[in-house]
Amino acid sequence: MQITDVKIYRRVQGTLRGYADVTFDDCLSIREFKLLRTATGYRVCMPEVKKQDGKVRRVAYPTDDKMLKAIEDTVIAEYKKVTRWTVAPGVLRY
To answer: Between β-strands 86-88 and 91-93, what pairing exists: parallel, antiparallel or unpaired?
Structure first.
Protein backbone atom coordinates (compact mmCIF):
# COMPACT_ATOMS: atom_id res chain seq x y z
CA MET A 1 0.00 0.00 0.00
CA GLN A 2 1.46 3.33 -1.08
CA ILE A 3 0.71 6.84 0.17
CA THR A 4 -0.47 8.79 -2.86
CA ASP A 5 -1.60 12.10 -1.34
CA VAL A 6 -1.27 14.10 1.87
CA LYS A 7 -3.21 17.27 2.69
CA ILE A 8 -2.08 19.39 5.62
CA TYR A 9 -4.42 21.63 7.58
CA ARG A 10 -2.39 23.96 9.78
CA ARG A 11 -3.67 24.75 13.24
CA VAL A 12 -1.21 25.87 15.87
CA GLN A 13 -2.48 25.39 19.41
CA GLY A 14 -0.01 24.36 22.11
CA THR A 15 1.94 21.40 20.75
CA LEU A 16 -0.60 20.82 17.96
CA ARG A 17 0.70 21.95 14.57
CA GLY A 18 -2.14 20.72 12.41
CA TYR A 19 -4.04 17.82 10.94
CA ALA A 20 -3.38 15.67 7.90
CA ASP A 21 -5.57 13.68 5.55
CA VAL A 22 -3.70 10.75 3.97
CA THR A 23 -4.75 8.91 0.81
CA PHE A 24 -3.53 5.39 0.07
CA ASP A 25 -3.36 3.96 -3.47
CA ASP A 26 -5.71 6.71 -4.72
CA CYS A 27 -8.65 4.77 -3.27
CA LEU A 28 -8.66 5.04 0.55
CA SER A 29 -8.46 8.26 2.57
CA ILE A 30 -8.04 8.53 6.31
CA ARG A 31 -8.70 11.92 7.88
CA GLU A 32 -7.46 13.80 10.92
CA PHE A 33 -4.02 12.48 11.70
CA LYS A 34 -2.71 14.90 14.35
CA LEU A 35 0.71 16.45 13.89
CA LEU A 36 2.37 17.46 17.16
CA ARG A 37 5.61 19.31 17.86
CA THR A 38 7.27 17.86 20.96
CA ALA A 39 10.61 18.47 22.66
CA THR A 40 12.08 15.57 20.67
CA GLY A 41 10.65 16.63 17.30
CA TYR A 42 7.48 16.05 15.32
CA ARG A 43 5.07 13.23 16.10
CA VAL A 44 2.08 11.93 14.14
CA CYS A 45 -0.90 10.60 16.11
CA MET A 46 -3.50 8.28 14.65
CA PRO A 47 -7.14 9.45 14.24
CA GLU A 48 -9.29 9.02 17.34
CA VAL A 49 -12.91 9.41 18.41
CA LYS A 50 -14.18 10.14 21.86
CA LYS A 51 -16.88 7.73 23.00
CA GLN A 52 -19.89 8.69 25.12
CA ASP A 53 -18.28 7.19 28.21
CA GLY A 54 -15.32 9.58 27.80
CA LYS A 55 -12.84 6.99 26.57
CA VAL A 56 -10.81 7.68 23.43
CA ARG A 57 -10.55 5.02 20.73
CA ARG A 58 -8.30 4.95 17.68
CA VAL A 59 -10.29 4.48 14.49
CA ALA A 60 -7.33 3.77 12.21
CA TYR A 61 -3.83 2.52 12.85
CA PRO A 62 -1.02 0.75 10.98
CA THR A 63 -0.47 -2.90 11.72
CA ASP A 64 3.30 -2.79 11.35
CA ASP A 65 6.17 -0.43 12.11
CA LYS A 66 7.11 -0.02 8.44
CA MET A 67 3.75 1.55 7.56
CA LEU A 68 3.78 3.71 10.69
CA LYS A 69 7.22 5.05 9.71
CA ALA A 70 6.04 5.69 6.14
CA ILE A 71 3.01 7.65 7.37
CA GLU A 72 5.06 9.68 9.85
CA ASP A 73 7.83 10.48 7.36
CA THR A 74 5.40 11.48 4.60
CA VAL A 75 3.16 13.64 6.81
CA ILE A 76 6.12 15.41 8.45
CA ALA A 77 7.82 16.01 5.07
CA GLU A 78 4.61 17.48 3.61
CA TYR A 79 4.13 19.69 6.68
CA LYS A 80 7.67 21.02 6.36
CA LYS A 81 7.10 21.64 2.64
CA VAL A 82 3.85 23.52 3.28
CA THR A 83 5.33 25.62 6.09
CA ARG A 84 8.70 26.23 4.45
CA TRP A 85 7.96 29.85 3.57
CA THR A 86 6.20 32.10 6.04
CA VAL A 87 5.24 35.60 5.02
CA ALA A 88 4.93 38.28 7.68
CA PRO A 89 4.36 42.00 7.05
CA GLY A 90 7.55 43.23 5.42
CA VAL A 91 9.50 40.06 6.26
CA LEU A 92 10.09 36.88 4.28
CA ARG A 93 11.36 34.11 6.55
CA TYR A 94 12.79 30.74 5.62
So the answer is: antiparallel
Four-residue CA torsion sign, 54, 60, 62, 68: negative
What length is written for the chain? 94
- Beta strands at 16-24 and 48-50: parallel, antiparallel or unpaired: unpaired
Contacts of 94 (CB under 8 A, 6+ apart): 84, 85
Q: What is the mean pLDDT of each run of 10 residues along the chain (94 residues)?
A: 94 93 95 94 94 93 93 95 65 44
In this structure, is the dihedral angle defined by the CA atoms of residues 22, 38, 42 and 40, taken in order, positive or negative? negative
